[in-house]
Amino acid sequence: MLRNVLGKTFRFLGYTVQYGCIAHCAFEYLGGIVVCSGPSMEPTIQNSDIVFSENLSRHFYCIRKGDIVIVKSPNDPKSKICKRVIGLEGDKVCTSNPSDFLKSHSYVPKGHVWLEGDNLRNSTDSRCYGPVPYGLIRGRICFKIWPLNDFGFLRASPNGHRFLDD
């Protein structure tokens, strides 16, 4: 009787550990569901929108200009932020706010990306904390899941004019 109970308990623990490892690998390397909060990505992503984030792009260095990414916050490593990639390493980016009369430019250093929210007037982004190390990128947002009337791939940036070509 005791042997039977112990056998079932250890079997259950073994399966729990196995499935836990599989779930961890799936969420770490494949992707997951993310609930976005805050106004910085409006109108593309609204507060409380639910999106799917895939994580393979960051591992294979497939992040491109215009992608929306989930990043570990440079200001608070315990939180994650959602921003659009405006520049990759070596790109020339506009570092000033849209309302600034004189525009300033800079180059993105090696191993970094330049991130901005779509809501430029209400976003804390690379214009505040500078270029972000590529290693802080956690995933790339593929499509919106919720609300259902907005289900599908995300639209292009409303700030396309901020993408500079040399």
From TrEMBL:
Localisation: Mitochondrion inner membrane
Q: Which GO terms describe its biological process?
A: protein processing involved in protein targeting to mitochondrion; signal peptide processing
Chain ranges of the Peptidase S26 domain: 16-97, 103-146
Q: Which UniProt keywords apply?
A: Hydrolase, Membrane, Mitochondrion, Mitochondrion inner membrane, Protease
- Please give the chief subcellular localization of this protein: mitochondrion
Q: What is its EC number?
A: 3.4.21.-
Question: Which EC class is the enzyme in?
Answer: hydrolase
Q: Which Pfam families match?
A: Peptidase_S26 (PF10502)
The active site annotation covers S40, K83
Keyword Mitochondrion found: yes
Q: Which Gene Ontology terms cover its molecular function?
A: serine-type endopeptidase activity
Q: What are its GO cellular component terms?
A: mitochondrial inner membrane peptidase complex
Instruction: Tell me its family.
Output: Belongs to the peptidase S26 family. IMP1 subfamily.
Under the heading PANTHER family, the entry gives: MITOCHONDRIAL INNER MEMBRANE PROTEASE SUBUNIT 1 (PTHR12383:SF16), PROTEASE FAMILY S26 MITOCHONDRIAL INNER MEMBRANE PROTEASE-RELATED (PTHR12383)
Quaternary structure annotation from Swiss-Prot or TrEMBL? Heterodimer of 2 subunits, IMMPL1 and IMMPL2.
Which protein, by its recorded name, is this?
A: Mitochondrial inner membrane protease subunit
Source organism per UniProt: Aptenodytes forsteri (Emperor penguin)
